[in-house]
Amino acid sequence: MTAIARLESTPLLMPEMTRQVGAVDGAEGASAQRGPNGTTGASGADSIGALFSDAIDQANRAEFAATKKVEALSSGAADDLHGTMISVKEADISIRLVGTVRNKILDAFQELWRTSV
Amino acid sequence: MSRPAQVSGVFSAMEIAASGLSAERGRMNVIASNLANARTTRGANGQAYQRLDPVFAARPIAANSFDPVLRSVKEVSLAGVRPDTTPGEMVYDPGHPDANPQGYVQYPNVNVVTEMVNLMTASRAYEAGVTSIESIKAMARAALKIGQ
Amino acid sequence: MRILDSVEHLRAGMDYHLARQNLLTANLAHVDTPGFRPMDLQRAGAFEGALQTALVATQPGHIAQPHAASGEAWRVTQGTSQAGGLDGNGVNVDREAVKIATNQIRYDTLASLVQNELSGLAWAANDGRGA
Fold first, then answer.
1. Do A81 and C45 touch (CB under 8 A)?
2. So where are chain A's domains?
3. Residue C131 lies in a domain
4. How confident is the model over C14-29, as pLDDT tens digits?
């Protein structure tokens, strides 16, 4: 069971929340992001959602790599002390990053829900 | 670990340092034998004691490892002792029980001062081995701090 | 799924290293015992290719086969290399001391990994906020 799975509190609502938060963020950011050619940046929903799923992918990969190294070290099959420690810390930070992004989306959504009613 | 090291990491370094300590301890034993028998004019073979020199050999620790560093490094082993055939001094002492027909006694070729210097060298080399083990342990502790 | 399943294999590893520390310390204690051969603890996966004599307790109070609480097979092996010295004692003080040091490093590593894993679990249990 990965830490990501443990973190998920409202998995059903996450895509919808992400979309709504991203839409607001995109609307605000589009006016500020007009480049020299007059083009806008990527739409807000994509950027928040993309950021979140990127963070999840990275955390999953980091945790998988760290688990393999830890098993090798603890069973005595490998001798890599610092490599294993760095992998473990990397996975830890990646998971906490997912948690932080999720919390920010949740908080932003709750803010929206309050103001739009 | 109860199996030999397979990469050139903390554990292989400590095994190599341990071989150095072991070799120096063996050298100190040989020197102690020389010092104890510095005036032995008749040994088990009826001859005066001949001083011994330790013979060290380099031994690879993992000749077929995939790690090129571990393939190259060697630990030291005390392969044996070699008697020193340099003749010792002859002292004219006809009353000595071990005197030869001409009245000379053959004393061992042990120079106490030389042996003491060798002993100090071996002792310093042992201390150097202990220092390198301590520094390897410090490196391992530093690696563990990454995870704190 | 129990919370502590994720550190189960780490805990088993720490069990093994602690038991091995006992054996290695006993080797050092017997540095002057005539005829003593140093002992070591092997665990599953390390048996092939090693020459070993399994210890069987023939009298009560003697050392029998140790076993892990998790059921992993451990085996006490005894050194068969030529013993040095007039008394037949085969303990090399320097090598045993280094084994003790490396065993401790491995134990400390596993302890650090357990701490890491559990603090990550605590953070997730706090819903990812704080802790």
1. no
2. 52-117
3. no
4. 999 999 999 999 999 9
